[in-house]
Design a protein that fits this description.
alpha+beta, two-stranded antiparallel ribbon
């Protein structure tokens, strides 16, 4: 219990300092005022402040501490009628208990809602990865085929008379490099479908976009799409969950690939860009597909609304919820002369890529 409490303190030091100072001021005020004044009811504000920690255990500890301070203040107060003070203290403790209970209940419900949303997002990722199955298999099969070829070459160089150790070494080095490529693809897939709690890390969005593009590279080649990227070299780091943000990018790109399937191969273009301006960073995916009617663009991010014959209408809705949970916003607009632009903006906290 002590270790868990110390963990709470280390995670949000400013919040807990504020809680401690406010509780201390209320305790002093409750102690120096008359017993007839129900000053202790102000502890309710301390409990509400503790809700920002997002921890039911922490809220309970703060509630118990406030109740204990109320009782201690009653015995330390020297002014006023004792009976009135007892009634006021009892009423304050009831208010503290009720507020603590309601705060814990609300936080528990919110936690369950966040867990359900996280699981729904994971299922969405699984569906996307299922759609990418052929592309991923192709990306993995290429280095495996190269490993086999280089392995046979190394054996031939070693069996030659005399053995050519230099060529054999180079073949083995190529095997190691190809094995790393295959491992990277598998690692990206595992990370994307993993069951994990949302995190708040400092993320290089340019690198995250590159990783997503590696997963869909074969799909882009198969559909004969011309891919261009415009990723600023000096993109600042953003705070967020890498897997969730990659899911949004992947969803936008897959939608663009599907839209491009309905136009001629000579006009299939896909542009993925990222740039920072002032206090935000913008990521956009532009395609030259058939586009979406303006009336439909207004509803495109609604749950269960889809423009696809077999779509579920959840991918873009989940993407919106992810970006909004990161403090950003999503958008969709016509691309000129034809096609659609999907994108999102995220706030910056001022940290640069190091």
């Amino acid at each position: 219990m002590r270790r868990e409490f110390l963990k709470y303190l280390s995670e949000m030091p400013v919040l807990w300092l504020g809680i401690s100072v406010l509780a201390g001021l209320i305790f002093i005020g409750d102690t120096i005022t008359d017993l007839e004044i129900a000053f202790a009811v102000l502890y309710v504000s301390v409990i509400l402040l503790a809700v920002r920690s997002g921890r039911t255990g922490a809220i309970a500890v703060v509630g118990i501490a406030c109740a204990a301070l109320t009782i201690l203040s009653y015995f330390l107060t020297r002014h006023g009628a004792s009976q009135a003070g007892l009634i006021n203290s009892a009423l304050s403790i009831v208010a503290i208990g009720a507020t603590t209970y309601l705060a814990i209940r609300i936080e528990t419900i919110d936690a369950r809602a966040r867990e359900a949303q996280s699981e729904l997002a994971r299922m969405s990722r699984l569906m996307i990865v299922g759609e990418l199955g052929t592309s991923i298999a192709h990306e993995v099969s290429q280095p495996i085929t190269a490993i086999t070829a280089n392995g046979n070459a190394a054996l031939r160089w070693l069996a030659a008379t005399p053995a050519d150790h230099d060529e054999a070494r180079r073949a083995i080095e190529r095997i190691v490099a190809d094995a790393g490529r295959a491992g990277d693809v598998i690692g990206r897939v595992r990370m994307l479908v993993s069951r994990s709690s949302p995190s708040r890390d400092m993320i290089d969005l340019g690198e995250a976009i590159d990783n997503v593009l590696e997963l869909v590279r074969s799909e882009i080649r198969k559909n004969q799409i011309s891919l261009r990227t415009e990723l600023a070299n000096d993109l600042p780091l953003v705070a967020g969950d890498r897997v969730q943000l990659q899911q949004v990018i992947l969803n936008f790109i897959m939608n663009a690939i599907e839209a491009l399937a309905d136009v001629s191969t000579d006009v299939r273009e896909l542009l993925v860009s990222a740039a920072a301006a002032e206090s935000k960073i913008t990521v956009s995916v532009r395609d030259t597909g058939i586009g979406i009617a303006p009336a439909r663009l207004d509803r495109i991010f609604e749950a269960f609304y889809t423009t696809k014959p077999n779509g579920m209408g959840m991918g873009l809705a989940i993407s919106r919820s992810i970006i909004e949970a990161h403090g950003g916003s999503v958008y969709a607009a016509p691309n000129f002369p034809h096609g659609t632009v999907f994108g999102f903006t995220l706030p910056l906290d001022g940290k640069s890529r190091g």
